[in-house]
Request: fold
Amino acid sequence: MHKISLNYALVNDRTETSPAGMADMNEVAADLHHPLMTMLDAIHRSGSISGAARLLGLSYRHVWGELKRWEIELGDTLVIWSKGQPATLSPFGAKLLWAERHAQARLAPQIEAMRVELQRAFAIAFDDTAGVITLYASHDHALPRLREWVQARHRLHLDIQFTGSVDALAALNEGRCLLAGFHALTAAPLRSPTAGVYRPMLKPGRHKLIGFAQRNQGLMVAAGNPLNIRSLHDLTRPGLRFVHRPRGTGTRVVLEELLAAQHIKPEQIGGFDRTEPSHQAAAVVVASGSADAAFGIEVAALDNGLEFVPLARENYFLVTLAAQLGHPHVAELLRALREPAWRSIIESIPGYSADGSGEVLSLRAVLPWWTYRKPKPGAEPPT
Reply:
């Protein structure tokens, strides 16, 4: 058994800046960093030690020397190569890299929460005019970009706490945040899994929806789709390994909605009880070969070199209390969401569109779960 001890550093990868001085919108999160894992990843992507050296801006001799040093330290071969042949990670090296990627993906929300807390402390300490909005939200690739955008352009600090959709709405109703973020299939009928989860937590007249984005949800499978997984029914094949999302997450609600519509029982799917905390973590498990399929958003699949099978188009909403719509920070955020430049950023994310971004919507106009008796003469209809 290998005894592995690695020391990590918390770094911020945002090294490129725009002419306006903003961080590159594609690099918005801090990472745990280890030089060995960086080298193994570069070799895996480039197929050679010299290619890895070029990717990392290091000399071939340095990369080669570090690999040999780590092989001695760990007591096993990391890379298999021969002259004229592509370099490949050894079974040990591949297992080490994928285990590290999986751990990184699972820890990403906690790492991001630490970074956000530090940003909030600095924002308050050094700029007492900056507005702070606390947002509990389901995991999403566009929200960190929104935080960077409004901080640079609108002097707003989004204090984002990533959690499941159910917990996000609970936080809003308990007064722990100004905004919540959740996602759902808006065509789900009254007696559906989606309505069963969200209808008790949302009250017409009390809550207002704010359009944020639309996203593709579907199956994340290995590159080339070697098992030819094309539908939810394919997940019921004997021996197929699926990885799910935990209870309380919006993605789990979406999948259960789709399964119910096709009369597929969860127990028919192998691995339905195996869960990962985020789209990214689920995608990494599939990319490592530890699972054959997961359900998630398109960008997470593409980021991990997977094939994506689209199955649904969902809406991602921000929610606030109707009484808070006039809050100056909320009003400023709405202006930001409606800007063409921001909409272009959303549209640049694979599987996303900015349709409805910044629009204030009533529950009844979007979610078909509430009916009312005929209003009294002269009474305003409920919103």
The first strand starts at residue 9 and ends at 12.
